[in-house]
Amino acid sequence: MARTVGSVGTKTFDEVRKAALYLFARHGYASVSMRQIAARVGVQAGAIYNHFPNKQALLSDLLTQHMRELIEACEARPTSKLPLNALEQFVRFHIRYHIDRADEVFIAYMELRNLEPENFREVQVLRQRYERVLRDILRDGAKAGAFEISDAPVAGMAIIAMLTGVNTWFRYGGRLSVSQIEEIYVKMVMQSVGVFEPTALLGALMEENA
Amino acid sequence: MARTVGSVGTKTFDEVRKAALYLFARHGYASVSMRQIAARVGVQAGAIYNHFPNKQALLSDLLTQHMRELIEACEARPTSKLPLNALEQFVRFHIRYHIDRADEVFIAYMELRNLEPENFREVQVLRQRYERVLRDILRDGAKAGAFEISDAPVAGMAIIAMLTGVNTWFRYGGRLSVSQIEEIYVKMVMQSVGVFEPTALLGALMEENA
DNA sequence: GTCTATAGATGGATAGAC
DNA sequence: GTCTATCCATCTATAGAC
Prior knowledge:
Two copies of one chain form a homodimer.
Chain A (H helix, E strand, L loop, with lengths): L10 H17 L6 H8 L3 H4 L6 H21 L7 H18 L1 H9 L6 H27 L8 H13 L1 H4 L8 H15 L5 H11 L2
The structure holds a DNA duplex.
């Protein structure tokens, strides 16, 4: 879908993608002009049309490519057969990836509205494929009695939203390192599905009897 | 800030807000023209300028007004002194409110980028005031030993993100009622901070010893 | 307070030279 | 493959009649 004309692996092609990613993430697709993107690359606006047929195709390429890479990386993550460990591995992967690819993740959520129907559907299919990975872990874990959850689909959406939220507040150089943040989220997610360390028990029981 | 000219409580003023809210939520601020808003109200574009000085003021009014009403409603919610109950009450309030005001919530997150610096700051201050309510509940609860959390600020952001996420997938007429969804989120949030029902314990211990 | 009409700017996209 | 030049649509915002 991406390389439309005779431009395969051109330097400009990649630079246009990168500039568009940067600008879309900061100002939004609709607020960014082709001239701005071109200026950031150092070419004239007309030159972009040698690599993308129009602005919409540029956005669509960014989003579908992002989803494909996310799924590919997800499938390459370490996985355990034990639901408890599989969930922890998923959480670590998701947090890391969503911190590493902040701009891609951001526009993949914010710019869905600006995709034309066909492009929208393509991204949605990929997104659902990704979300299904977590839902299956939850379903299998619940069936095996490893998790205490009321509803696997909702739990999946809730966990994804919780984790992806890191994208909105995390900045490098803040109070916490990426590793620390990862640990905090792992613990919260595990607890949210009913997996906890013994120490957690005491406080709750004390509260219960207060 | 809102009523700029001599228009206090005009019918058109409210209808313009309503139309803009609807259109911004569906297509995005930058993609919606003053003409479209006017057409939805049934007036000409120029008429909008009798109520708002420009498009930016219209967006800003929608977002700050939403944040003010959110905070007002939040302060009017039932509250317990017991951290465990206070958290549950906050969760119920947040879920209900974010389902009831789906469009307002949506643009309050999506259109922040399109606010000019001063308007952006105003909304951010209000948002932080709201988020602080949850953070204080978590901090107090952790201090009292009611919650098992590693970091109150991150836990707060994680919970807010988890709950607000309902906005992206919930549709009336779906598989679950609002009440059912509320219960699922209450349970997940309580568990995420280490508060759980006894039954949850067994599964985890079994998994631990598997 | 709303209308019509329009100024003035900027947008996406194309044509044709090099 | 990039440039310059430009078409044409559309946008925000204003002016002045009613």
